[in-house]
Design a protein that fits this description.
The protein starts with a helix and ends with a helix. Helix 1 packs parallel to helix 4 and helix 3 packs across helix 10. The protein has 15 helices and 17 strands. By secondary structure, the chain is α/β, with parallel strands linked by helices. Helix content is 39%, strand content 20%. The strands form 3 sheets. Strands 4-3-2-5-1-6-7-8 form an 8-stranded mixed β-sheet, sandwiched between helices. It folds into 2 domains: 284 residues, Mur-like, catalytic domain (UDP-N-acetylmuramoyl-L-alanine:D-glutamate ligase, 3-Layer(aba) Sandwich); 130 residues, Protein-Tyrosine Phosphatase, Chain A.
Length: 424
Amino acid sequence: MTYQETLDFLYPLHRFGIKPGLERVRELLQVVGSPEKRLGIVVHVAGTNGKGTVASLIAAMFRAAGLKTALYTSPHLVDFTERMRLDGLPIPEERVAYYASLLKEPVLEKSATFFEVATAIAFAWFADEGVDVSVIETGMGGRLDATNVVQSNYAVITGIGFDHTDWLGTTLGAIAGEKAAIIKPCSRVFSSVSGEESLAPIRRAAEECDAPLHLVGKESRVRVVESAIGRLVVDLQIGSKRFAGLEAPLTGGFHSSNMALAVMVAVDRGLSEAAVRSGLLGLRDTGYRGRLELIGSTPAVLLDVSHNADGVRATVDALLPFIGSYDRISVLLGLASDKDAPSIIRELLRLGCRFVVVDIPSGRSVPAEELLELCRREGGEVSVANSVGEGMDRLLQESSPTSLVLATGSFYLAGALVEHLTDW
C-alpha cells in the first residue's frame, strides 16, 4: 500500500471502537516478529492527566544522554506519523505503509482496532531500528490497554482523575487500579499520585509485583521558582541530589510535579545532570505540542489539549496569574461527547471569558448547538462557529493585540486548528 492507501485503511478501523483486551494486539505483534520483546529499556507511562508531558520529558532526557530513544504517544494532532518518533523524528511514511501492509490481513480477520494497529506498527519500527529506550504512553487505562503487552523496566503513573469512566470505573480507586496494572514484576514504579484512594491500588499492585515504589513528595521535593507562559523554573531535591533552577518550556506551576516525576526516573537510571538539564530545555524537540502552547503573540493565542475537568482546572489555574495582563479573554471550545461538559465550562468561566463553540472533527463531538446551550445555562457569553477555522478567525478579528485567545477541549480541535493555521 502507499501511505495514502494506508491511511484510507487505518482510519476506518475506528468503526471497531474501543475494544479493551490484549489478545488481538498480541496476535498482530506475532506477525511482525514479537517486537514488544526488543524495545530496549521500557518506560511505560499511565495516568489521567500529565502522562503525555511526563513521557515526552523522559524521552527528551534519555535522548540528551545519547541514547537512541523511541517515543509512542497518542493521539496525533495533524498526521499519523506524529504518534511514533525516534530521537524526535516521526516515522517515515513508507515505514507506516510497509508495516500496515504486513498487518492488513490479520487486522481484518481479527477486527483489530485503530489503536491496536498503531501500537503494533510503532513497536515493530522501534524494534527494527534497534532502540536503546522506548518510552510508551498508554492510550486509555492500563490493564487492558494495547500497550500493556510490554515488560516495563519503569512503570510511571501520573495524576489520577475522572476520565473514560464508562470503561475504567466511576471511583478514583477503580481508575487507579486499572492504571496500576501496568506494574509488572521487576518494574521500578514512580508516581506523582498523592490521595490515598488513588494511591492504595498502586501501592498494592507494586507490593504484589515486588516492585519498589517511589513517590513524588515523599522522596522528592519540588518548588516553583518562576512560572510564565511557556517557561517553568523549579528547584528539585531528590534524596541527596539537588537541582537548582531546572527549566522547561512549560506553562503552569502544576507541571512541577510532572517535572519531578520525570527527573526521578532519569536520576534512577543514572543520567547526568547535564542530560537532565539539556533534555528538559529541549522538550519541544520530541514533538511535544498543545499543552498551553503559545502559537501567536498579538493577540496571544494558546493551544491546549486539556479535555477533562481536572485537566481544564489545571489549565485555568495556570492562566489565572496572568489574566490581568489581557484586556479580553476568549475561548474556542470543542468537546467529545464522553466528557463532563458542564464542569469543563464552569472551570473555564473562572477566566471571565467569552466562548465560541464548535463541532470537533470526530464522530464523538458534542454538537456545537448543545455546547451553546450548556454555556448559556452556566451564564457564559457564547456564539457558534461552523468550523474550528472559522471560530478562530472570528476570535482573532474581534481581539485586540493585548487580548488572549485559548483554544482547548480536544486533541481533535487542536489538530484542526494547527492545520488551519498552516494553511494561512
